[in-house]
């Protein structure tokens, strides 16, 4: 059997996938039917429970991959990867799932979560190595544009007559001396 905290998770999954007949005997629910319910009626309690299980499992897998790589992903990046995994599952991967049992489903989710996390970690490593090896390439990617006003000298036009301008300037100078 499974020991530790995984035992409770496995028990929860088994409860999720079983129903009680009127005779009291447990009956295993068709996993494919549960997945169809998840995809078609996302607001049902069964769909919510299945989604939460898949979400927690994907999160656990992403954090394991991150730890395996020396905590390569921050918590925010892990959440982003989990969101991407769940999006992949809900947008078609679960429809493509051909298994019949819970271990097959969890293996399927594990593969998607691991590959998605590894893809992000490898992409970040490639970007970092590129930045450290040749900084000139990055400078070529990011062009510096001159400011539009760098080549212009703007002489303000004043609608006031010269004597009014002189009076306002005297007032401003007098006010700044008083402070």
Shape: elongated
Helix content: 55-70%
Terminal residue distance = 83 Å
Strand content: under 5%
Residue-averaged pLDDT: 78
What is the radius of gyration? Answer: 31 Å
Kindly name the structural category: mainly alpha
H/E topology pattern = HEEHHHHHH
Strand order in the largest sheet: 1-2
- Report the count of strand segments: 2
Please, how many helices? 7
Low-confidence stretches: none
Major β-sheet profile: 2 strands, antiparallel
Question: What is the topological layout?
Answer:
Layout: H1 5-16, E1 18-20, E2 26-28, H2 31-40, H3 45-68, H4 75-96, H5 102-133, H6 135-141, H7 162-178
Antiparallel strand pairs: 1-2
Helix pairs in contact: 2-3, 3-4, 3-5, 4-5
Describe this structure in words.
By secondary structure, the protein is mainly alpha-helical. It has helices spanning 5-16, 31-40, 45-68, 75-96, 102-133, 135-141, 162-178, and strands at residues 18-20, 26-28. The protein has a two-stranded antiparallel sheet.
Give a quick set of tags describing it.
single chain, 179 residues, mainly alpha, two-stranded antiparallel sheet, 69% helix, elongated
């Amino acid at each position: 059997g499974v020991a530790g905290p995984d035992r409770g998770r496995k028990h929860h999954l088994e409860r999720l996938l079983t129903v009680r007949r009127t005779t009291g005997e447990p009956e295993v629910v068709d996993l494919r039917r549960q997945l169809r319910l998840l995809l078609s009626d996302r607001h049902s309690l069964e769909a919510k429970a299945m989604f939460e299980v898949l979400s927690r499992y994907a999160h656990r897998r992403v954090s394991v991959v991150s730890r395996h790589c020396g905590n390569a992903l921050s918590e925010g990046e892990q959440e982003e990867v989990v969101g991407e995994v769940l999006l992949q599952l809900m947008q078609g991967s679960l429809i493509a799932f051909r298994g019949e049992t819970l271990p097959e489903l969890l293996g399927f989710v594990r593969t998607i979560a691991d590959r998605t996390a590894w893809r992000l970690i490898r992409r970040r490593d490639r970007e970092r190595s590129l930045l450290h090896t040749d900084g000139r390439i990055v400078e070529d990617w990011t062009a510096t544009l001159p400011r539009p006003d760098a080549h212009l000298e703007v002489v303000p036009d004043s609608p006031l007559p010269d004597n009014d301008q002189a009076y306002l300037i005297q007032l401003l100078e007098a006010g700044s001396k008083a402070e």
